[in-house]
Design goal:
This protein has two domains: 5-68, Arc Repressor Mutant, subunit A (Orthogonal Bundle), CATH 1.10.10.10; 73-229, Chorismate lyase (3-Layer(aba) Sandwich). Helices cover 28% and strands 32% of the residues. The chain contains seven helices and ten strands. The chain has helices spanning 5-18, 31-38, 42-54, 83-89, 108-114, 160-168, 186-192, and strands at residues 58-61, 65-68, 73-75, 94-105, 121-131, 134-143, 175-183, 199-208, 214-223, 227-229. The strands form three sheets. A six-stranded antiparallel β-sheet has the order 4-5-6-9-8-7. Strands 1-2 form a two-stranded antiparallel ribbon. Helix 1 (5-18) crosses helix 3. One of its GO terms (molecular function) is DNA-binding transcription factor activity. Pfam families: GntR, UTRA. This is Transcriptional regulator, GntR family with UTRA sensor domain.
C-alpha cells in the first residue's frame, strides 16, 4: 500500500521544523502556495496541516495563516507562582489584556464554593493572556469582593497575586485544581482567534486564603500546544 500524499507533506514540514530550518514563529507558505509547489489537492494539504497541528508543531491564527509553534511553557501547579512570574522565568514575555470586568450576582455554583448567598455580588473578570504576543490563554474568573473590598478599582491586567500582597497583605495558600483535555468552546476559541473545536486544556482553579476562605474561582482555557503540566511528587 502506498503512503498517502498528506503523510509525505506532513513529514516534509516536520523535518523542516525539527531541523530548525523553520523556527518558532515562522509563517508557513499559504495553502495555495503549498498546492502550487507540490501539486497536491487542498484536501491533502489541509490533512497534513491538521496532523502537524495535532502534534503541536504548528498553529493557525484566523485570517493570518499557519505558524510554527513556540516551545510550550511549563506550568507547575503546586508552585503558587503567578502566570507572569513562571512565564518570565522560562525566558518568555507575558502580557495580559482585560476583555471584560463587571460586578454581577453569584450563581448557585459560585455562591456554594464561596459560601455566600446566591445573588451576592462578585467581581467577574475576563482576560486574555499572551506569551511573546501570542494569545494562549483565556481566563474567566469570579473574585470574592467580601474578602477583597475595592479590588474592582485596581488595574486588573496586573498579576492578581501581586495585588493581593500589595493591597491586602494576603497570599494564595491552598488551591484546588481540576484539569480536562477538551475541545475549546466557541467563546474561548473566538477569543484566541482560532476555529471552534480545536483541542485545548481546561483548568478550574479555586484559590483559598490561609483561613480556608475562597478568594477566587478561575476557569482557564489554554491552547493545547502552549502549555505542559509538570507535577513533582516527593516522599
Amino acid at each position: 500500500m502506498s503512503t498517502p500524499h498528506y503523510h509525505h507533506l506532513q513529514q516534509y514540514f516536520s523535518d523542516l521544523i525539527t531541523s530548525q530550518q523553520l523556527v518558532s514563529g515562522s509563517k508557513l507558505p499559504s495553502e495555495r502556495e503549498i498546492g502550487e509547489q507540490f501539486k497536491f489537492t487542498r484536501v491533502t494539504i489541509r490533512q497534513a496541516l491538521k496532523n502537524l497541528e495535532a502534534e503541536g508543531l504548528i498553529y493557525r491564527q484566523n485570517r493570518r495563516g499557519w505558524f510554527v509553534s513556540p516551545a510550550a511553557v511549563i506550568y507547575h501547579p503546586a508552585s503558587h507562582l503567578s502566570f507572569n512570574l513562571y512565564v518570565t522565568e522560562q525566558g518568555f514575555s507575558p502580557s495580559t489584556e482585560k476583555l471584560a470586568q463587571q460586578i454581577e450576582p453569584a450563581n448557585e455554583r459560585i455562591a456554594q464554593l464561596m459560601n455566600i448567598p446566591v445573588g451576592n455580588p462578585v467581581l467577574y473578570l475576563h482576560r486574555r493572556r499572551y506569551i511573546d504576543q501570542r494569545p494562549v490563554l483565556i481566563e474567566k474568573m469570579y473574585i470574592n469582593q467580601n474578602l477583597l473590598p475595592g479590588i474592582e478599582e485596581e488595574d486588573l491586567t496586573e498579576s492578581l497575586s501581586q495585588i493581593l500582597k500589595r493591597k491586602y497583605q494576603q497570599e494564595y495558600r491552598d488551591m484546588d485544581l481540576s484539569f480536562k483535555s477538551t475541545s475549546l468552546p466557541a467563546h474561548a476559541a473566538n477569543d484566541l482567534g482560532i476555529a471552534a473545536g480545536q483541542p485545548g486544556l481546561q483548568i478550574e482553579r479555586i484559590n483559598y486564603t490561609s483561613a480556608k476562605q475562597v478568594l477566587e474561582v478561575d476557569y482557564e482555557f489554554w491552547r493545547h500546544d502552549a502549555v505542559t503540566i509538570n507535577i513533582a511528587i516527593r516522599d
